[in-house]
C-alpha cells in the first residue's frame, strides 16, 4: 500500500495543473447515496423514511438490476475479472509504466497479464487502464449493443422516476457547476469523485448513471485501500493554489471527517424526503452558501465590495480635487 501511495503522489505531482491563478472551485463528490442510489435501494433504506409511500420491494429489484448491469459492463468491457485484485486509486496511477504503444491491435486476451505484480504486469495493467479511459471518453452508446442500451435507458428512467428525479437532479447540479456566471467568465469549476468502491466498477457506475459528461475519467478516485483523507490531500495537492476553494459533499462519516481535517466545507447528504440535502433539493445556492461560510465572501460579494470601494475612492478623489480648487482662495486669504 505504501508503494501505491508513493507512486500516486509522484504521478499527481506530474499532473498538477500549473499554478492556478483563476478563481477555481473544486467540488469533491461522494458517489453512492450522494450522486447515485444503489445500496439504499438494495437494503431498503431509501424507501424506509417514506413510511410506506415507496414500494421497498420495487427499490430492491431496481438495485439488483443495477448491480447486474454494472457487473456486465465491468466484465465485458473493462477487463474486471482479470484486474479486480489490482485496484489502483485512479486510472493514471500507472501511467509511468505505459510506454504509449498503439493498442488498436493489441491482444488483451493473450498477453499473459497476472501474478506477480511486477513492472511488466504493471505495464499490461496500464494498457488496460488506458483502454478503459478511451472507452469512458467515447461513452457507452459507442460500446453497448442496442438491446443493452434499451435495458440501460429503461432502468435509468425507472430509477429516476422511482426516486422523484434523484439521478437527473444530481446530474443537473453538476452541470450547473460549469455554467456559473456569477463567478466571472475566467473562473474554473472542477468536479471530482472520491468513492470507497473499487475503481473499475466506479467508472462503470459513472457511465451507467450518466455522469461521464460532468466527471472525467481521471477525476475519479477510489479510496478503497488508501482512505478518503489521503485522496482529499492528493486532490488538494493537485489543484491547490491561492485562488482555489474546495467543497466536499457526501453521506458518509469518513468523508465528513476527512473534510474537517482538510478544513473544507462539507455538505452531509440525507435520504429523508424532508431534507434539503438530497436530490432533488440540493441547489447551487445552498452549495455556494457552505463555501461562503467556510471561505468568507463569495467572489460576487467581493466584486460588490470592490465596486463600493471604488465609488468611495472616487468620492475621496473628488473631495481632494475640491480641496485643491479651494486652496488658491485659501492661499489668497492667508497672504
Ligand atoms: Mg456514500
UniProtKB/TrEMBL annotation:
Q: Where is the signal peptide?
A: none
Any one biological process term the GO annotation gives: cell differentiation
Instruction: Give the reactions, separated by semicolons, that this protein catalyses.
Output: O-phospho-L-tyrosyl-[protein] + H2O = L-tyrosyl-[protein] + phosphate
What does the record give under GO molecular function?
metal ion binding; protein tyrosine phosphatase activity
**Cofactor(s) required, per the database record:** Mg(2+)
Could you name the active-site residues? 30, 32
On cofactor binding, the record's note says: Binds 1 Mg(2+) ion per subunit.
Q: What is one term from the GO cellular component aspect held by the record?
A: nucleus
* Matches recorded under InterPro entries: EYA, EYA_dom, EYA_dom_sf
- Source organism, top-level taxon: Eukaryota
On whether Magnesium is a keyword of this UniProt record, the answer is: yes
Q: Which family does it belong to?
A: Belongs to the HAD-like hydrolase superfamily. EYA family.
Any idea what this protein is called? Answer: protein-tyrosine-phosphatase
Amino acid at each position: 500500500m505504501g508503494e501505491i501511495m508513493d507512486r500516486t503522489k509522484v504521478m499527481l505531482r506530474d499532473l498538477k495543473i500549473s499554478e492556478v491563478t483563476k478563481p477555481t472551485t473544486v467540488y469533491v463528490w461522494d458517489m453512492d447515496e450522494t450522486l447515485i442510489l444503489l445500496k439504499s435501494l438494495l437494503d431498503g433504506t431509501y424507501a424506509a423514511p417514506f413510511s410506506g409511500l415507496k414500494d421497498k420491494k420495487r427499490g430492491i429489484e431496481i438495485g439488483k438490476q443495477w448491480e447486474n448491469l454494472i457487473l456486465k459492463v465491468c466484465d465485458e468491457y473493462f477487463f474486471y475479472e482479470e484486474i479486480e485484485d489490482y485496484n489502483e486509486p485512479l486510472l493514471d496511477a500507472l501511467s509511468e509504466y505505459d510506454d504509449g504503444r498503439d493498442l488498436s491491435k493489441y491482444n488483451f486476451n493473450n498477453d499473459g497479464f497476472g501474478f506477480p505484480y511486477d513492472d511488466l504486469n504493471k505495464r499490461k495493467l496500464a494498457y488496460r487502464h488506458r483502454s478503459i479511459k478511451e472507452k469512458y471518453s467515447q461513452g457507452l452508446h459507442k460500446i453497448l449493443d442496442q438491446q443493452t442500451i434499451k435495458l440501460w435507458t429503461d432502468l435509468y428512467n425507472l430509477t429516476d422516476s422511482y426516486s422523484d428525479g434523484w439521478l437527473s437532479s444530481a446530474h443537473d447540479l453538476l452541470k450547473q457547476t460549469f455554467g456559473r456566471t456569477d463567478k466571472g467568465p475566467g473562473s474554473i469549476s472542477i468536479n471530482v469523485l472520491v468513492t470507497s468502491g473499487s475503481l473499475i466498477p466506479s467508472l462503470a457506475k459513472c457511465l451507467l448513471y450518466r455522469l461521464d459528461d460532468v466527471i472525467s475519467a481521471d477525476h475519479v478516485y477510489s479510496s478503497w485501500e488508501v482512505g478518503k483523507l489521503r485522496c482529499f490531500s492528493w486532490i488538494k495537492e493537485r489543484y491547490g493554489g491561492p485562488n482555489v476553494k474546495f467543497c466536499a459533499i457526501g453521506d458518509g462519516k469518513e468523508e465528513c471527517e476527512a473534510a474537517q481535517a482538510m478544513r473544507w466545507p462539507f455538505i452531509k447528504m440525507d435520504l429523508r424526503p424532508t431534507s434539503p440535502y438530497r436530490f432533488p433539493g440540493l441547489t447551487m445556492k445552498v452549495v455556494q452558501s457552505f463555501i461562503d461560510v467556510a471561505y468568507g465572501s463569495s467572489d460576487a460579494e467581493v466584486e460588490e465590495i470592490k465596486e463600493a470601494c471604488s465609488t468611495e475612492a472616487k468620492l475621496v478623489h473628488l473631495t481632494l480635487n475640491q480641496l485643491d480648487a479651494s486652496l488658491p482662495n485659501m492661499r489668497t486669504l492667508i497672504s
